[in-house]
Design a protein that fits this description.
Largest sheet: 3 strands, mixed
Shape: globular
Order of helices and strands: HEEHHEHEEHHE
Helix content: 40-55%
């Protein structure tokens, strides 16, 4: 896994801990989409977000970047579902060997949410799944499209 946490990432993780009392397991600075993605310890999501998202807003002001948070899970399928929230993932399909994982969402409206503007959400999934599980994400599909 390519989980190298540099000085800047450590600083951002510490900033999150100070502002929210939540623990981040990892932090990705994604310059392509001008955002910081935190992977938060299971159960710390409420702390990290804060009442009505106030902690995220404060952190965005301090860091000057958009903040996104994902709750970690030991199981790849649950982690993938957490990454794509609020889109509802109904199943993941792991191919043979190193084949990419296809993600299936409940309904058409979830497709746009899962892919994100300019592909930002699927890119987030690709980055995090590679870092934590060595998995590649393939496509986001509706269950009927499974051919």
């Amino acid at each position: 896994m390519e989980r190298n946490i540099g000085f800047k990432e450590r600083r951002y993780i510490e900033e999150l801990r100070i502002l929210t009392k939540a623990t981040a397991l990892d932090c990705v600075i994604d310059d392509r989409f001008d955002r910081v993605i935190y992977v938060v310890r299971p159960g710390d999501m409420g702390l990290a977000i804060g009442k009505k998202g106030e902690n995220i807003r404060r952190l965005q002001n301090v860091l000057g970047k958009r903040i996104e948070m994902v709750e970690y899970s030991e199981t790849p399928d649950t982690f993938i579902a957490n990454i794509f929230k609020p889109a509802e993932v109904v199943k993941t399909e792991h191919g043979e060997g190193n084949a990419p994982v296809n993600v299936f969402v409940r309904q058409r409206s979830d497709l746009g949410i899962a892919i994100g503007k300019a592909g930002c959400n699927i890119e987030k999934a690709r980055i995090l799944c590679r870092r934590f599980f060595g998995l590649e994400i393939g496509e986001v599909l509706l269950p009927a499209e499974a051919a």
